[in-house]
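INTERNAL AUDIT FORM
Audit reference: QA-55
Scope: verify that the stored structure record matches its stored sequence.
Auditor: D.O.
Record contents follow.
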Amino acid sequence: MKNLLILFVAATLFSCETSVESTPEKAGLDPQVALDVMNDYVSACNELKDPGKWVEKHRLLTKEFKRDYKKLIKEAYEADPEMGLGFDPIFNAQDYSEKGYELNSFDSKTGLVVLQGVDSPDFKTRLVVKLVGDKCLVDGAGVIRMPEKY
């Protein structure tokens, strides 16, 4: 009976299909994550989606980013219920490159990613990526969670 149980367990383990997804998220600090997040955000803005809901649901943003974004928006509307911040805190601007962004530079030591507008290289925005477990996530963008040195 014991041998039958061992045979059953071994057969079960070896017959299971396993899939190891090779994604940049698992490879370390990756500027592509910042680029994907920003271009996804541009699409959401172009479609006039609620940025707060977008931030809340996005899987490539850290919990701390989401928390600080929510706090910043809440405090801005408490201070000025009509205008709030008066600018987009993720872009750190009122305007943005509606056609999306491309990589300008990446510092692999600090995780700082600088993006520039596809249609207007003058539109630049900075993000910070960091590893959370084995995933690369955006932890800062615009005025949210950005170290003063950037």
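Auditor finding: record pair retrieved intact. The chain has four helices and four strands.
Action required: none
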